[in-house]
Specification:
disordered N terminus; mainly alpha; about 80% helix
Length: about 600
């Protein structure tokens, strides 16, 4: 308090002095106190004389500890203040000694690189896997026997959502029982093991594992509306793969990686580096998309030259081997950060106060009650749920068009590989733009970009779907493509733009919003929002689609209603983002004040 009552130049001098007790400490004390007495005589000459003589280590009238420094270092610091109350005739420079050295606000570049490059590489490998898994899960379930895109809403509602809830219960208990480092290993290793076993054990034995006879019997006995649930039962191993691939996005990407990144970074570092994480990650999208296309090409070769080989089964083994190798890279990088970065005080200067806090343990019921009372967490959940509902409403309709245009699994997979590569390239550009958006316009504008883009592109896709037959003569005559292929390409463009703005702006915004929270809200709130909120959003969109399909008779007939619901959901999203922008700025001010 006494230091902050000084004039600005005095504060800068006092706060920058180290606590070294070198031989020139007496002269340093005299120089500082002479300046203080000259402009702030209320400290008292007697107190100054006593302190300079070494009788006290604090100012008797204020009780404020003052450091001891070498006079050369003091003179160099005083000169930089250019204060009229101090002489700048003496020049010099020296490095302060001792363990009490003040921590500079800006981390050295070498330390930033040591911390941020491994985090960026982790994100690279995680997104590499995510792209392969996302493309593979869609091919498996959409092109499976007696299945289609209509199965996706049922998967998200009745399989994916319960799986996410169960994982949240498990994760909450793990965080209360184990250290974060061990929780990371416990969560990610089963994913790697499952994808390996699926390719080399489960898929080759699908004829034995899939209950085709029971599914045929149920299909004959039940109405046609049960075709999708029966398809899930018929191809239950594919459904399990779909759920694990979806959870990889929710758990590994959103919860484990971003939760770990938030633990080791400050807000200033996040604003600088979070958008750039996506640069490497979207290079991974390009590489993984081309990897999927390359494997699709090998399937054609195997189908012609090696009749004894199951082309799709062999390609799964290649793809999942890539996932396993990438997963091992993730574990190695995480271990490096734990042992080489988090143990380096120079890399963790802004995180010391966070780690000093005691970990709070709460059960699931207590955590849910606590989070339900937080408007901040509710707004975060609304953002995630609204994105999940919006993208699901558009994406399922687009995938139905995509299967109609590419009924062959190999062609479908090849198109998805190209789609992923283009998504990565566009997102690279958006990452560069996103960093500028954060710097110039701030968090609020960045958070509103994704819903605005999704509203515009989704409206265009649904407009083309609704009025395609009326526009067919003009489309064929002018563009030389059928309305179906144009809808496929417009839907692809919609997904690419939506995902690129999500990766470059929406995800960094969401993760930055967790940083000023206390550890309990950050850990439990993130688990609830990311692992439950995202599947809930997609399941909400799926429930809407299921109800409209039963009411209207088909997905195509429900398109006008889906378009109206999409607009309403995005408007709620925009309102929540505006409210959260105000709360985030207030939380940042409070967090900065608490750090001081």
């Amino acid at each position: 308090a006494a230091v902050h009552r000084c004039f600005p130049f005095q504060r800068s001098v006092i706060m920058s002095l180290p606590s070294s007790r070198g031989g020139g400490g007496l002269l340093a004390r005299v120089l500082v106190l002479c300046a203080m007495i000259d402009t702030a005589p209320s400290y008292g000459v007697g107190a100054a004389r006593g302190w300079a003589a070494g009788a006290h280590t604090t100012l008797p009238t204020r009780g404020v500890p003052l450091p001891v420094v070498r006079p050369v270092a003091l003179r160099s610091r005083i000169r930089r203040t250019r204060s009229p109350g101090l002489s700048d005739a003496t020049a010099g420079d020296a490095t302060p000694e001792g363990q009490g050295e003040a921590v500079p606000e800006k981390m050295p570049l070498g330390k930033e690189i040591k911390k941020m490059v491994p985090l960026g590489l982790m994100f690279f490998f995680i997104l590499f896997n995510y792209t392969i898994l996302r493309d593979t899960k869609d091919v498996l379930v959409v092109t499976a026997p007696k299945s289609g895109a209509e199965i996706i809403p049922f998967l998200k509602t009745y399989v994916n959502l319960p799986g996410a809830v169960l994982f949240t219960v498990l994760y909450s208990r793990l965080t209360n029982r184990f250290k974060r480092e061990n929780v990371f290993y416990i969560c990610i290793v089963p994913f790697i093991a499952f994808f390996f076993l699926f390719a080399f054990l489960i898929y080759p034995n699908q004829a034995f594992l899939h209950p085709n006879g029971l599914a045929d019997m149920l299909a004959a006995a039940l109405p046609a509306g049960f075709a999708a649930p029966i398809g899930i039962l018929r191809n239950w191993t594919y459904a399990l793969f779909y759920v694990m691939a979806e959870l990889w996005g929710s758990v590994v990407v959103s919860l484990l990686f971003w939760g770990f990144a938030n633990e080791v970074t400050t807000v200033s570092e996040a604003k600088k580096y979070y958008p750039l994480f996506g640069l490497g990650a979207n290079v991974a999208l390009i590489f993984s998309g081309q990897f999927v296309r390359y494997i699709s090409g090998l399937r054609r070769v195997w189908a012609v030259s090696a009749a004894h080989i199951d082309p799709w089964g062999r390609s799964l083994q290649y793809l999942m081997s890539g996932v396993v190798v990438s997963g091992l890279g993730i574990l190695g990088l995480f271990r490096f950060i734990q042992t080489r970065v988090m143990t380096d005080p120079g890399c963790m200067r802004g995180q010391m106060a966070k780690k000093a806090k005691t970990k709070t343990q709460m059960g699931i019921r207590e955590s849910a009650k606590y989070l339900a009372q937080s408007k901040y967490i509710r707004n975060l959940a609304l953002l995630v749920i609204a994105y999940g509902m919006s993208i699901n409403i558009v994406e399922v309709s687009w995938k139905a068009k995509l299967k109609e245009a590419f009924p062959n699994p190999n062609d479908y997979s090849e198109f998805m590989g190209m789609f992923s590569s283009v998504t990565g390239a566009v997102t690279l550009v958006m990452m560069l733009i996103g960093q500028r958006v954060f710097k110039v316009f701030g968090w609020g504008v960045a958070a509103l970009t994704t819903p605005t883009v999704l509203l515009a592109t989704g409206g265009l896709f649904f407009g083309l779907t609704l009025f395609g037959p009326q526009l067919e003569p003009w489309i064929v005559g002018t563009l030389g493509v059928t309305p179906l292929m144009l809808a496929v390409f417009v839907g692809a463009a919609q997904n690419i733009l939506s995902k690129s703005t999500k990766y470059s702006l929406f995800d960094p915004c969401k993760e930055m919003a967790y940083i000023p929270l206390d550890p309990e809200s950050k850990t439990k709130g993130k688990a609830a929002v990311d692992v439950i909120g995202n599947p809930m959003g997609k399941s909400g969109g799926s429930l809407i689609q299921q109800g409209l399909i039963f009411a209207c008779g088909s997905l195509a007939a429900s398109t006008p209603y889906l378009a109206g619901i999409l607009i309403a959901v995005i408007l709620v999203w925009i309102r929540a983002a505006r409210s959260l922008n105000v709360q985030f700025n207030e939380a940042m001010v409070a967090d900065s004040a608490g750090a001081m």
